[in-house]
Amino acid sequence: MEQTKKWFANGYLILVFVILYAPILFLTAYSFNSGGSMVGFDGFTLEWYQELFSDTRLLIIVLNTLVIALISATIATIVGVAGAVAIHNIEKTKYRSMLLTLNNILVVSPDVIIGASFLILFTMLGISLGFFSVLLSHIAFSIPIVVIMILPKLKEMSPTLVDAAQDLGASQWQVFSKVILPYILPGVFAGFFTALTFSLDDFAVTFFVTGNGFNTLAVEVYSLARQGISLKINALSTIIFAITLALVLGYYFLSTRKKPKTLGGTD
Amino acid sequence: MKNNRFARLALIPYALWIVIFVVAPLVLIAYNSFLDIEGHFTFANYGKLLSPVYMKMMFNSFFYSLIVTAVSLLVGYPVAYFISRTKHKGLWLILLILPSWINLLLKTYAFLGILGTAGPINAFLEVIGVGGQQLLFNDFSFVLVSTYIFIPFMILPVYNAIEKINPSLIYASRDLGASNWKTFQRVIFPLTTDGIMSGFQLVFIPTLSLFMITRLIAGNRVITLGTAIEQHFLVTQDWGMGAAIAVVLILVMAIVMFATRKIIK
User: What's the pLDDT tens digit per position in B149-170?
Assistant: First the structure.
């Protein structure tokens, strides 16, 4: 009885996970298909990868995407650290929770709302749609997530650390750079990393606020996919999967390896 | 360092961000929803929302989102429960989270091949004698792909809720003679309502606002609030109407969050 239940549970889990991964594997497998479509596997080829790497327009788009992600994550992290410190230092609970609510609006808002409202905003401010508007949007929607990642670190920091530094004559900037910043650094890195992935992953907001001349990878994939199946997208996906996998696993192993040092290793 | 100058200085860039990118966009959406295509003040956009065309679209959007949420719960709950009973929870969780890091456009694109008339699903249907079906560009493909994409966001909060249950409650229920099913029904399930509500938020609202999935594989029809907003902003350029639908979406979101939070409390 117990045994059959176990088999059922495991079987169900395996089935769901196979379905979860099937589309990704399907896409990857067909990126090596010489047949030219996602029907019938004719033979192994790297043709689509060659085509991908000789497409300079696409490589420029990849570069654009990376530049936007790196700049926006950096600026969002700086503003986010400032915001977290500012929120943490507000004494009145009422104002603090009001700021937190405002902070979280962009986190819970659907992408279409963010995209549409930013489109109105940029048009009103006379900011032309392109690199700059996309960059501003990415900074804007990444800031709240950085704040959320850093606040718990600030909260768990003992105030006596700051008091001690001040008693020893540290200036406010020194207190921040020598005491607070090192303490919250894991949160800052987590925030930066999340902002980076948010930016790389974003499609909807970028789609709304980008102009004709400027594309990021997600928008390009969308316009390619709307034209139908092209195995170049499969090849591109495979590369993106591989990078995502490497990043996530790398981040996972780094964060689990660090754990025992700070938290005493709970499993 | 309470109340110091540094913290007040730090507030400046952050407050600027709040004013320009949080408050102003919301105000602008609300303001634009009262403008017609020429920029004159009007209530007509909200009037149009009550017309049969828009009522039907909104009803469809809620209906499909509810189906996607319900299917996610039905399929996802057992997954969450079984994962919490396995030895290698960490590994299963990583495997669950990993696909959600992959851009949903690519996952949607994969279904163009899988569900295509010559794709593997149709080949399978031929073999078992059902015969080929048009699986793409209809409501079925929308529900299937949306569920596929959002199901991890139902499984994770439910899993967290199950993990939080004090095991002594389950032992107590068993000691008092409850069967496994009774224990699940009376102890475990009620204690996971919080998780289900969070999952509801995380699946229902994004499904309402999707537009790329409907564009790519649901036959380009306007069946979600998100598609309608995209249509008005980027295709017909009627920002006023798009903004009015956006206001509806924001209100629905606020109501859902308020209602689910009440239950969570």
Answer: 999 999 999 999 999 998 899 8
3-state secondary structure of A203: coil
The verdict on B242 and B181 lying in the same domain is yes
Least confident of A58-67, A100-109, A154-163, B135-144: B135-144
Backbone angles phi, psi at B41, to 5 degrees: -65, 135
d(CA B228, CA B232): 6
Q: Is residue B153 part of a domain?
A: yes
**B114 belongs to a structural domain:** yes
> Using CA atoms in the order B34, B36, B40, B41, what is the torsion angle rounded to 10 degrees?
-20
Which residue in the set A30, A99, A201 is minimally distant from B103, CB to CB? A201
What is the tens place of the pLDDT at every residue in B115-150?
A: 877 777 777 777 887 777 777 777 888 899 999 999
- For residue B104, what are the domain limits? 45-264
Which value does ipTM take for this structure?
0.86
- The residue ranking higher by pLDDT, A250 or B253, is B253
Domain count, chain A: 1
- B 79-108 → A contacts, CB under 8 A: 79, 82-83, 85-86, 92, 94-99, 101-108
Residue B40 maps to a domain: no
For residues B72 and B148, what is the distance between their CA atoms, to the nearest angstrom?
Answer: 8
Is A218 in Cβ contact with B103 (below 8 Å)? yes
Q: Does residue B24 carry a pLDDT above 50?
A: yes
In a mutational test of the B interface, the residue from A7, A91, A101, A113 whose CB has the highest number of chain B CBs within 10 Å is A113
Two tokens, residue A161? 């650390």
- A·B CB contacts under 8 A: 226
Least Cα distance to A75 among A3, A150, A136 occurs for A136
pLDDT in tens, A224-250: 888 877 888 889 888 888 887 887 788
The 8-class DSSP code of residue B177 comes to T
User: Which tens digits make up the pLDDT trace of B78-127?
Assistant: 999 999 988 888 888 888 988 888 888 888 888 888 887 777 777 777 78
Which residue range is the domain that position A93 belongs to?
Answer: 55-237
* One domain for residues B160 and B216: yes
SS3 (DSSP) at A214: coil
b/e burial code for range B198-211 (CB count within 10 A of at least 16 → b): bbbbbbbbbbbbbb
The verdict on residue B38 lying in a domain is no
Q: Provide the number of structural domains found in chain B.
A: 2
User: CA nearest B3 in A: which residue?
Assistant: A89
Chain A CB within 8 Å of residue B5 CB: yes
Residue A123 maps to a domain: yes
Question: Is the pLDDT at B188 greater than 50, yes or no?
Answer: yes
Q: Which of residues 185-224 of B touch A (CB under 8 A)?
A: 205-206, 208-209, 211-212, 215-216
